[in-house]
Write a structure and sequence with these properties.
With about 425 residues, the chain is α/β, with parallel strands linked by helices. The protein contains 14 helices and 16 strands. Helix 13 packs across helix 14.
Length: about 425
């Protein structure tokens, strides 16, 4: 499989774009080699600039739940395109998608559209601070909530210590207001809130962690967050930028039966176009300008094109049985991967939440903690990634990113993937 054109484009990109990519997650630093450049998508497949076809398990990092170039989504975009690209003013479609989101998500009574997931989490935290009149927040190790200064934080020396900046350019003063706790550690949560709970404006968490691969919550974890926040008057924020309308029609909050105070969204609600949103309880949301004193604004918020695509996407995923079919396909894929890993005697574990999944080269049967994710065999993952790529399967170029299956993945695509995986596991074992 030739990658000549991708290699040439990458060298050209290095001359004009830092690192040759416009987002670090696209780089191949975690697996070695040069990133691929793509020119088209079709159903479950991506096509690169060398005309190689790959079964795609990245799906633009989640939003392409229907697959590439779904005709209903394309038609919605084309119809809107004929009427205009942007107005910088309100549209009927904004009202329609807001109503749809409020109907589908248990926690959302009012919603504000923005242009990205990062903007959604930033705004939700500002709103929580304005509502509680408190400054300090809690996040969890291994969870990513966008490139906001106060959220680019790594754990300090202990569970009850303040975080440290995780990026150059982030003043330590920003992160001194952020506490980092271990994900899925109920005892650590209870201990922290017993000591500091009355100082905390909000807790922000991915209900299913998707940025340390795919790690669902252990039983009782989300419930513990809900109870602690309610007891101390803190705002519970579910970052469902990745899981919202991905793991279920009602998001992860519907799957696990825990209702946050605020929810952040992105990905699917734009149908693949840039978009974000945050919403929640009316009494909190009414503090957002112009209703209240918490300022938030966005010139291109509620992009007509993104809203049109999102409405088309939400209509289709609302059809009965959509998510059960998606989850069944993911289950078939992961069972097949586990069987082939076992046959090759390669340590392998997987997690799944709806159409979102994770693969771990770990000796432990259950991966539920950040430390376990970090203990995975990176050499095995690199071999697996490149063997799959050479066999026409495109997975996230990082051991710490989740995979996504779409409605366009059928028996043929799954079988192709499993055949490639058999080669990969045998290569690892040799």
């Amino acid at each position: 499989m030739s990658n000549k054109n991708s290699s040439q484009l990458y060298q050209q990109a290095l001359q004009f774009i830092p690192g040759g990519v416009n987002s670090p997650v696209r780089a191949f630093k975690g697996v070695g080699g040069n990133p691929l450049f793509f020119k088209a998508g079709e159903g479950a497949y991506l096509i690169d600039v060398d005309d190689n076809r790959y079964v795609d398990y990245v799906g633009a990092w989640g939003p392409l739940i229907l697959g590439h170039r779904h005709q209903s989504v394309l038609q919605a975009i084309a119809t809107q395109l004929e009427q205009g690209i942007a107005y910088g003013a309100s549209t009927e479609a904004e009202v329609q998608i807001a109503e749809k989101i409020c109907q589908l998500l248990p926690s959302v009574e009012r919603v504000r559209l923005v242009t990205s997931g990062t903007e959604a989490t930033m705004s939700a935290i500002r709103l929580a601070r304005g509502y509680t009149r408190r400054d300090q927040i809690v996040k969890f190790e291994g969870c990513y909530h966008g490139h906001v200064d106060g959220l680019l934080v790594k754990a300090g020396s202990g569970a009850l210590t303040l975080g440290e900046p995780d990026s150059l350019g982030v003043p330590k003063a920003y992160t001194e207001l952020t506490h980092v706790l271990p994900f899925n550690d109920i005892e650590a949560v209870n201990k922290f809130f017993d000591a500091r709970g009355d100082e905390i404006a909000c807790v922000i968490v991915e209900p299913v962690a998707g940025n340390m691969n795919c790690v669902p919550p252990v039983p009782g974890f989300l419930e513990a967050l809900r109870e602690s926040c309610s007891r101390h008057g803190s705002v519970l924020i579910f970052d469902e930028v990745m899981t919202g309308f991905r793991v279920a029609l009602g998001g992860a909050q519907a799957v696990y039966g825990v209702t946050p105070d605020l929810t952040t969204l992105g990905k699917v609600i734009g149908g693949g176009l840039p978009v974000g949103a945050f919403g929640g309880r009316q009494e909190i949301m009414e503090l957002i300008a112009p209703s209240g004193g918490v300022y938030q604004a966005g010139t291109l918020s509620g992009s007509p094109l993104a809203v049109a695509a999102g409405l088309a996407m939400l209509e289709l995923v609302s059809e009965p049985g959509f998510y059960s079919r998606l989850e069944a396909r993911a289950g078939t894929l992961l069972r097949g991967l586990s069987e082939r890993a076992a046959a090759a005697r390669v340590p392998f574990t997987s997690n799944c939440a709806g159409g979102m999944f994770g693969c771990f080269f770990n000796t432990e049967e259950n991966v539920s903690r950040f430390s376990q994710v970090m203990a995975g065999n990176l050499d095995h993952f690199q071999t697996f990634f490149h063997t799959m790529l050479d066999s026409g399967v495109y997975m996230a170029p990082s051991a710490y990113e989740a995979g996504f299956i779409s409605a366009a993945h059928g028996e043929r695509e799954i079988q192709l993937t499993l055949d490639a995986a058999e080669k990969a596991f045998n290569k690892i074992a040799s």
